[in-house]
């Protein structure tokens, strides 16, 4: 088991399949772009399978695959089809060219999170620097996966007026809408807005019921819709950091382990595997790293973009 000195048990790993993305969301990737990894720097599929086995043996019971955009990685679908870890989760923009929705529907998926910041095609194109709104909408409607969450990063004067339409759209397709506070990973022209105010307004307008529903370790605060059409989530890493519930480990596509979104990379499993370290050595290093996990980050500054970390 991976337990830290503050009593938190790490049982959830987020794995970035690639640092590359097919879109360039303005809050995620800086205008100048990011230096991308070479093929040799990426963990190979068989190396990821090995790490998944190790994580499972350390009692990790939830795996989410993210990116960059996971489906941009060549043969990603094949990778998912060969996975043998029970139900797993994917975070995607659902826009990758050639994404086969039928094959996606047949994966052993426990849930899928889709980034959708706006319902306006022009605004979608702007925020993603070129993304095709109609394609993502078609793919969303063709999904036959039960647990769908739509994620919208809320930005002042961009999509704060779309809160209710997004909730209604999610309800219409049987998905859960989640709003995310924008974190500043680099300097941009997009303004942060605290979601707590928006959450409280939706409660006073009687759109959401007052009671908070938060499952253990969830980074979201959820409220039921009073209409009975499901719940709405708020992820507030800026105004309400969720370090107390932290149960997650992030594995970047280059094999770096991040025990906190704001920690500097320290441990690299890619290097350990290629140096020929065996499974027990890797386990020991992970156990030690988790023991050293800080209760809260030293500071909340981050130099890497979310695209490199995986969200
Ligand atoms: N390409 C996939 C996607 O679009 O969902 C997965 C990777 S993306 C980095 C994962 C999540 O990170 C998305 O939901 C995105 O909205 C979120 N994200 C990226 N940059 C962010 C930021 N600056 N603040 C808050 N959330 C961010």
What is the fold's blueprint, element by element?
Blueprint: E1 12-16, H1 45-57, E2 62-66, H2 76-81, E3 88-92, H3 101-105, E4 109-115, H4 121-127, H5 133-142, E5 148-154, H6 163-172, E6 176-181, H7 195-204, E7 220-224, E8 231-235, E9 248-251, E10 256-258, E11 267-268, H8 269-274, H9 279-291, H10 306-309
The structure holds S-adenosylmethionine.
Verbal overview:
This protein is of the alpha/beta class. The protein has one domain (12-309): Aldolase class I (TIM Barrel). The protein contains ten helices and eleven strands. It has helices at residues 45-57, 76-81, 101-105, 121-127, 133-142, 163-172, 195-204, 269-274, 279-291, 306-309; strands spanning 12-16, 62-66, 88-92, 109-115, 148-154, 176-181, 220-224, 231-235, 248-251, 256-258, 267-268. An eleven-stranded mixed β-sheet has the order 7-8-6-5-4-3-2-1-9-10-11. The longest helix has 13 residues, at 45-57. The radius of gyration is 19 Å and the shape is globular. The chain starts with 11 loop residues before the first strand and ends with a helix. The structure holds S-adenosylmethionine (SAM). S-adenosylmethionine (SAM) binds next to strand 3, strand 5 and helix 10. The site of S-adenosylmethionine has 20 residues, from strand 3, strand 5 and helix 10.
């Amino acid at each position: 088991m991976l337990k830290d000195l503050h009593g938190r048990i790490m049982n959830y790993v987020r794995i970035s399949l690639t640092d590359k993305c097919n879109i360039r969301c303005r809050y995620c990737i800086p205008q100048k772009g990011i230096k991308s990894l070479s093929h040799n720097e990426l963990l190979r599929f068989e190396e990821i399978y090995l790490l998944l086995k190790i994580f499972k043996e350390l009692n990790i019971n939830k795996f989410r695959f993210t990116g960059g955009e996971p489906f941009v990685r060549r043969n990603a679908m094949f990778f998912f089809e060969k996975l043998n870890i029970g139900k797993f989760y994917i975070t995607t923009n659902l826009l990758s060219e050639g994404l086969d929705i039928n094959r996606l529907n047949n994966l052993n998926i426990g849930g899928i999170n889709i980034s959708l910041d706006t319902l306006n095609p022009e605004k979608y194109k702007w925020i993603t620097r070129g993304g095709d709104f109609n394609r993502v909408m078609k793919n969303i409607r063709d999904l036959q996966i039960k647990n769908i969450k739509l994620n919208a990063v809320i930005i002042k004067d961009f999509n704060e007026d779309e809160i209710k339409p997004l909730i209604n759209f999610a309800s219409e397709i049987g998905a859960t809408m989640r709003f995310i506070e924008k974190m500043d990973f680099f300097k941009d022209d997009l303004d942060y807005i605290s979601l707590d105010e928006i959450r409280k307004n939706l409660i006073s307008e009687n759109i959401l019921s007052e009671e908070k529903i938060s499952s253990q370790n969830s980074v979201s605060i959820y409220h039921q819709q009073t209409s009975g059409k499901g719940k709405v989530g708020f992820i507030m890493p800026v105004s309400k950091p969720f370090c107390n519930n932290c149960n997650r480990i992030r594995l970047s596509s280059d094999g770096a382990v991040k025990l906190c979104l704001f920690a500097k990379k320290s441990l690299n499993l890619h290097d350990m595997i290629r140096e020929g370290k065996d499974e027990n050595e890797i386990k020991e290093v992970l156990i030690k790293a988790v023991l050293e996990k800080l209760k809260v980050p030293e500071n909340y500054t981050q130099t890497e973009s979310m695209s490199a970390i995986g969200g």
